[in-house]
Amino acid sequence: MDKRMVSEVRVWLEEAAQFIRESLDHTMTVVEKSGRTDLVTNIDEETQEFLMNKIRSHYPEDKILGEEKGYNTIDSLEGRVWIIDPIDGTMNFVMEQENFCIMLGIFENGIGQLGFIYDVMKNELYWGGKKLGVYLNETRLTQPAFGKLSEGLLGLNAHMYGENTHFARVLGNKSMGVRISGCAGLEMIAMLKGNHNGYLSNLSPWDYAAGIVLLEEFGFKYSNLKGTPLSFDGREYFLAGSPETYEEILHYVLVNGA
Ligand code: IPD
Ligand code: CA
Ligand code: CA
Ligand code: CA
Question: Which residues does Mg(2+) bind (predicted)?
Answer without folding.
Answer: 67, 85, 87-88, 207
